[in-house]
């Protein structure tokens, strides 16, 4: 076969789609036990599994080379079986998993106990062209060895005294007032992009949450959900304009947002790409995350405290919230203290009249003095 999936499935094979949008295949006769089949119909891998299922045999998938004890591959596999790994969000596991794949490809059979601080620093140096990516790599390795140290698999953590690479970046640009006006003029109430905008800016949730949001998270006009990234429970009140946008936007299911096919988005990436296209069509070169930053900035400038911001935006530490409150507090305190200075000066410095406010008779005296 050429590897393409046939239109008609083989006998006793059923197709299902997971909640993540992935298509999988099972072998099942009547109401008997289901057997997961590897690959897709038309491939050699699938055919081997199917033939084994037809014979009532168990097909063991070739998992590739086995990890030698104490090897880098072995350590990473044990880590990815741990509760520490399971506690990460899906996005974090995906990102760190890609880094670990690179490490395994390069040094999978090496003894992990030979990894030193110098090894980690060299790995960062190899990635210095992309500092942000290098720092995420370091974060993944720190998680691995922190777990290994806690479980007495290493005596020392080689990442303990390794610093992040320094690089200046402001990340995703924040939306401006003109961006908001341009977007809202292009996408009126009743359109899906406008509803996405209203939900993002008023709730402040991430793209990883907004594409999952729906009526099941709404009680009256109070929106509550557990965030995907930090597992924090957030609760916000949606104003009338958001409720009106929800009511005015047609959709077929519980999800607030649907793609042009009338189906919920399958991932944060698919939603992010779609929303980015909507922004560009409106002449706005910004992103969904930039809208979240605008929301947090407005809240901080309005006087929201650090813990109030943490509650709304699902941050698990004060540092992230202080990014916004620090700037807002400095501006607010600067204005306040300048007024204090002015008041103090008024008390100690006598007021003098401006030149154009000198009485006429006084001017004559001064002039006469100059003439004499």
Automatic annotation (TrEMBL):
Alphabetical UniProt keywords: DNA integration, DNA recombination, DNA-binding
Keyword DNA-binding: yes
Top-level taxon of origin: Bacteria
Region spans: Disordered: 351-372
InterPro entries recorded: DNA_brk_join_enz, Integrase-like_cat_sf, Integrase_catalytic, Integrase_recombinase_N, Phage_Integrase
SUPFAM superfamilies: DNA breaking-rejoining enzymes
Transmembrane segments: none
Composition bias type Basic and acidic residues, residue spans: 363-372
Domain Tyr recombinase: 170-338
Any one Pfam family match given in the protein's UniProt record, by short name: Phage_integrase
Family from the record: Belongs to the 'phage' integrase family.
Full protein name: Tyrosine-type recombinase/integrase
Annotated source species: Rhizobium alvei
């Amino acid at each position: 076969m050429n590897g393409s999936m046939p239109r008609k499935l083989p006998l006793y094979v059923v197709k299902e789609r997971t909640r993540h949008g992935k298509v999988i295949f099972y072998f099942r006769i009547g109401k008997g036990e289901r057997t997961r089949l590897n690959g897709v119909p038309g491939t050699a891998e699938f055919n081997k599994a199917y033939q084994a299922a037809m014979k009532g045999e168990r097909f063991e998938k070739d998992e590739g080379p086995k990890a030698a004890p104490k090897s880098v591959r072995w350590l990473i596999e044990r880590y990815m079986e741990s509760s520490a790994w399971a506690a990460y969000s899906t996005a974090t596991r995906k990102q760190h998993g890609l880094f670990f794949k690179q490490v395994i490809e390069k040094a999978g059979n090496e003894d992990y106990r030979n990894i030193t601080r110098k090894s980690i620093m060299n790995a960062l140096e190899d990635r210095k062209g992309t500092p942000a990516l290098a720092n995420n790599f370091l974060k993944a390795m720190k998680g691995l060895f922190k777990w290994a140290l806690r479980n007495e698999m290493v005596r020392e953590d080689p990442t303990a005294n390794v610093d992040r690479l320094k690089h200046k970046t402001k990340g995703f640009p924040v939306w401006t007032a003109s961006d908001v006006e341009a977007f809202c003029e292009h996408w009126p109430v009743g359109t899906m992009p406008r509803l996405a905008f209203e939900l993002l800016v008023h709730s402040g949730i991430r793209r990883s949450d907004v594409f999952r949001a729906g009526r099941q998270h709404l009680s009256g006009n109070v929106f509550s959900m557990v965030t995907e990234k930090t597992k924090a429970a957030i609760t916000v009140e949606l104003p009338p304009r958001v409720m009106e946008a929800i009511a005015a936007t047609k959709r077929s299911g519980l999800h607030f947002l649907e793609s042009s096919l009338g189906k919920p988005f399958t991932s944060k990436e698919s939603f992010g790409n779609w929303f980015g296209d909507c922004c560009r069509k409106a002449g706005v070169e910004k992103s969904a995350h930039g809208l979240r930053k605008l929301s947090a900035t407005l809240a901080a400038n309005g006087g929201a405290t650090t813990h109030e911001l943490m509650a709304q935006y699902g941050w698990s530490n004060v540092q992230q919230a202080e990014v916004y409150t620090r700037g807002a507090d400095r501006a607010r305190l600067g204005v306040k203290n300048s007024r204090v200075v002015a008041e103090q000066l008024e008390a100690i410095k006598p007021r003098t009249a401006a030149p154009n406010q000198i009485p006429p008779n006084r001017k004559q005296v001064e002039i006469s003095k100059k003439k004499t």
